[in-house]
Amino acid sequence: MDGDIFSSIGSTAQVDGKVLQTFQKSFGQVQHILDQNRLLINEINQNHESKIPDNLSRNVGLIRELNNNIRRVVDLYADLSSSVTKSVDVSSEADSGGSFKSNGKASQKRIRSGFH
Q1: 12 — phi, psi (to 5°)?
Q2: Which of 14, 91, 99, 116 lies deepest, with the highest CB count within 10 Å?
Q3: Bridge partners, 106 (sequence order)
Q4: Where would you find this protein in the cell (predicted)?
Q5: Residue 18's pLDDT band (boundaries 50, 70, 90)?
C-alpha cells in the first residue's frame, strides 16, 4: 500500500515537472514573439506617419508578419491549454489510483458534482 502512495507522488511530480517545462518553453516563445510584435508595430507606425509611398507599401508585409505572429501566439496558448488539460487528467488519475478495466485500459469515468 505504501508503494502505491509513493509511486503516485512520483508520477505527480514527474507530470508537474513536465508541465513546468512546457510553461517555461511556451511562455518564452510567446514573449519572444510579443517582443517582435512590439518592434513591428513601432515600424508600422513610423512608416504610416512618414506617409512615404515606399514605407506605406512596406507596411503591407509588416502587417502580414504581425498577423502571422498573432496566429502563432494563439497556437502556442492552445497547445499549452491542451498540455495542461492532459497533465491534469493524468495527475487526477494518479491521485485516484486510476481505475482499470479488465482489458487493462484506464477508465475515463468522471464524477461531476452539482450536475444531476
Answers
A1: -65, -40
A2: 91
A3: 100
A4: Nucleus
A5: confident
Beta strands in 6-87 (DSSP E): none
Q: Could you tell me the three cell numbers for 86?
A: 492532459
Residue 64 is inside which H or E element, if any? helix 53-96
Contacts of residue 69, Cβ cutoff 8 Å, sequence gap at least 6:
33, 36, 37, 40
Q: Write down the domain spans for the chain.
A: 2-88
The whole-angstrom separation of Cα 107 and Cα 72 is 35
CATH domain 2-88 topology:
Helix Hairpins (1.10.287)
Of 34, 22, 16, 32, residue with least CA distance to 80: 22
User: Mean pLDDT, to the nearest integer, of 30-39?
Assistant: 98
**Cell numbers standing for residue 9:** 507522488
Better-predicted residue by pLDDT, 46 or 99? 46
Mean pLDDT of the chain: 78
Sole residue written with cell 502512495: 5
- In which residue are the cell numbers 504610416 written? 48
